[in-house]
Each structure stands twice: as C-alpha cells, then as structure tokens.
Predict the 3D structure of the following.
Amino acid sequence: MTASDQQFEQCVFTMRTVGALSEVSRNMLMQANNPAIHSIIRDDLTKVLAQAIDIAAINGLGSGSNQPLGILGASGTGSVALGTNGAALAYGNFAT
C-alpha cells in the first residue's frame, strides 16, 4: 500500500441569487382548473433558472458584475503546458 498525501484548500463562496418571472392570466388558471397547468409553469421556471445558473457557472463575469466567476474566466482554465512540440497523449501529462 502507498501512503496518500491529502491536501485540502479553503474555497470561499459568496451567496448569489437568480430569479425568473412568468406571467399567467387569472382566466387561464381558472379555465384550466387542472393541476397540469401548474406543472407546466413550474417546469418552465425550473428550466429558465437552470439555464441562468449554467450560464453564470460557465461564463460568469465575476467581481463587480453580480455574477460568480465562471469556469471560462478562471485563470489557467483550458491551458495545459505541454512543451514546445506538445507531449504524448497520456493521462499523466494532463492530470494536476
């Protein structure tokens, strides 16, 4: 067995909020009188919120924009130093 050398870092989170709005007429709710209409509205709001969270997590602008810093905005994301002529395609060359 090989001893492991675990290391832990602190990750600071800042609370963010996201919201969505769906306009539904009173007549539609009364005429539908069916739980399905509530399900349709809830599903729509869920999809809109999920899309907003995904966009912020991937491409958020970060500090000063009221968005988290997205993966694409983090320094070093997507860049792997493999030398002048590249390196062999192996897991060890990409794992950090």
Notes: The chain has a mean pLDDT of 81. Residues 76 and 96 are 12 Å apart (CA to CA). The longest helix spans residues 35-59. Residues 22-58 form one domain.
